[in-house]
Design goal:
- The chain has 445 residues and is an alpha/beta fold.
- The strands form 3 sheets. A 9-stranded mixed sheet has the order 19-18-17-16-12-15-14-13-20. The protein has a 6-stranded parallel sheet with strand order 8-7-6-9-10-11, with helices on both faces. It has a 5-stranded parallel sheet with strand order 3-2-1-4-5, with helices on both faces.
- Helix 10 runs antiparallel to helix 16.
- It starts with a strand and ends with a strand.
- The protein binds [cytidine-5'-phosphate] glycerylphosphoric acid ester.
- The site of [cytidine-5'-phosphate] glycerylphosphoric acid ester has 19 residues, from strand 1, helix 1 and strand 4.
């Protein structure tokens, strides 16, 4: 019996895939089809698939050409499969011509003609999409436009900045339409990305939600609890997505770390400690006391994420220790007391420290090296070192593409309630910021 094997993502299965499968099947008597897992696709840089692995497997099955379906989950698996299943022919589309010649050592390699004029990419472009307008045109907005290219089902349409000269330069560079007012921006989009200075977030988010636009808001969300509650309430009432552009919350490593720890890998969690410091020029807006500058406002939302995810939001008290200069905190250490745990973090714009995270439990601990907030790697460590485990994940580009993808899929599926940051966590972040701004339990050093 002649065995043939082929592989693919088979997203939005189309005639090109069907032709390929038929031709591959005709090469022998038994066709094995390897369908890539979602994670493997992420790892090889394909993060725009629409169908998940189960849907893609079902679609391949429905063609009737596959005698056996397997999943492909790691680089190098093709060699293992060819040997394991006793494969005679490896077949793949001609767009891969030459790229799989290394398999000739193990079996015959056949490049089949690719069907012209149809592709998953074209089909994805025809699907419903989100039109995003950008508010604020600084450096984070630039990074956002770069990263958005990797996510499908969205179009960046226009940008708004009250400084119209800046707005025009940004739009010219990025091929966007400059909007002269917020209303003009709203008329050109179905969702907005807020990338303006902290103190403007609330007002822009409120205006956007009231205009019926979904909102992706840069960190920090808003700095007062009432504001967070009001925005969330409006979003809920109007059935709109309101998401925080918190890149750590959406990156693959962090998500898996939380799930692992929630399933008890290191026992009961007793302490979370994380820090994030960036030495910043004193003239920077980030240190402007009239514009809610300072280390807490700039960076506290990062360590608050693991603390809330792992210990919850029912803390008993928080103490802050701050080194001040020109009316802002250059460095703050915060200590949280919970009923059965403690947490602490250090944030700094004028003091530098190691930017790692350690989560301590009754059976072991987690070490996440700097920069833990955009990690692709962490370790579980135990008393018995033989049990230590290292975990590796993809972290593509600047990492903003993960939050953008999540936002777009929440908007398109009306699935905002599945968002990785809960309403309670968002409100609690603002509550901590507010307590700090009010000076409650803040000690100067
Ligand atoms: N294909 C085709 N005609 C098209 C589109 C795709 O013949 N118009 C073929 C591809 O050449 C490939 C198969 O259909 O052989 C699956 O294509 P994709 O789903 O795009 O998967 P791909 O990224 O090519 O996966 O390990 C994965 C493989 O290396 C290839």
């Amino acid at each position: 019996m002649k065995k043939v094997i082929t592989y693919g993502t088979f997203d939005l299965l189309h005639q090109g895939h069907i032709n390929l499968l038929r031709r591959a099947r005709e090469l022998g008597d038994w066709l094995i089809v390897g369908v890539t897992t979602d994670n493997f696709d992420l790892e090889r840089g394909k993060m725009n698939t629409c169908d998940n692995v189960m849907q893609r497997i079902e679609a391949v099955k429905a063609t009737g050409y596959a005698d056996q379906i397997i999943i492909e989950e790691y680089k190098g698996q093709k060699i293992d499969d060819i040997q394991k299943y006793g494969v005679d022919i490896f077949a793949i589309g001609s767009d891969w011509e030459g790229r799989f010649d290394y398999l000739k050592e193990y079996c015959e390699v056949v490049y089949l003609p690719r069907t012209e004029g149809i592709s998953s990419t074209l089909l994805r472009e025809e699907r419903p999409s989100v039109q995003i307008g950008i508010i604020g045109t600084g450096s984070i907005a630039r990074r956002f436009t770069d990263e958005a290219r990797y996510v499908n089902s969205l179009f960046l349409t226009a940008a708004y900045n009250p400084d119209s000269a800046q707005c025009h330069t940004f739009c010219e560079e990025r091929g966007l339409t400059p909007a002269a007012s917020l209303d003009e921006l709203f008329s050109r989009c179905t969702a907005v990305y807020i990338a303006s200075p902290h103190y403007t977030h609330y007002e822009y988010a409120r205006r956007a939600l009231e205009a019926g636009r979904h909102v992706l808001c840069e960190t920090p969300f808003v700095l007062h609890r009432k504001e967070a509650e009001q925005l969330l309430e409006t979003a809920r009432r109007r059935n709109l997505v309101l998401m925080l552009a918190h890149k750590t919350a959406y990156c693959p490593a962090f998500g898996h770390l939380v799930s692992l720890l929630k399933s008890g890998e290191i026992g009961e969690i007793v302490e979370v400690n994380a820090s994030i410091t960036t030495l910043t020029d004193e003239t920077s807006e980030k240190l402007d006391s009239t514009r809610y500058g300072g280390s807490m406002n700039e960076n506290a939302c990062f360590p608050l994420l693991p603390i809330f995810k792992l210990l919850g939001t029912q803390w008993r008290n928080i103490n802050f220790y701050s080194k001040m200069k020109n009316g802002v905190d250059m460095y703050t250490k915060a200590v949280f007391l919970y009923d059965n745990a403690v947490a602490s973090f250090q944030v700094g714009l004028g003091v530098k420290t190691e930017g790692n995270m350690v989560i301590s439990g009754t059976r072991g601990y987690v070490y996440v090296p700097a920069p833990w907030w955009k990690t692709d790697y962490f370790e579980l460590r135990f008393e018995d070192q033989n049990r230590n485990k290292k975990f590796f994940y993809p972290f593509m580009g600047e990492g903003l593409r993960y939050e953008i993808k999540e936002f777009v899929s929440c908007v398109l599926t009306e699935g905002w309630f599945f968002s990785k940051l809960t309403e309670r966590e968002l409100t609690a972040m603002s509550q901590v910021q507010e307590q700090y701004l009010e000076g409650k339990n803040v000690y100067r050093i």
